[in-house]
Amino acid sequence: MTTLDTLPPLSRAEIRDVDWASLAPDEGKRLRALGLDAGARVAVAHRGVFMGKDPIALIIGRTTVAVRRAHARAMTVEVL
User: Hey, what domains does the chain have and what are their CATH numbers?
Assistant: First the structure.
């Protein structure tokens, strides 16, 4: 298993765990509202072009959302 921020574009994964303690409460609430929680299947659509490769565009179901790399780093995933 690895963290979501390390996956290359077009990779698919299932979120196994989220380190909610490493995120601010309002950030965690937003991510849960977007469906980013344990058990969710995601795909990396693309990464930003800036030096930190931020943000990361994720596909969740039929929705595409952008998350910060720091948020993706808090998510442990299993590559599918």
Answer: 2-79 (2.30.30.90)
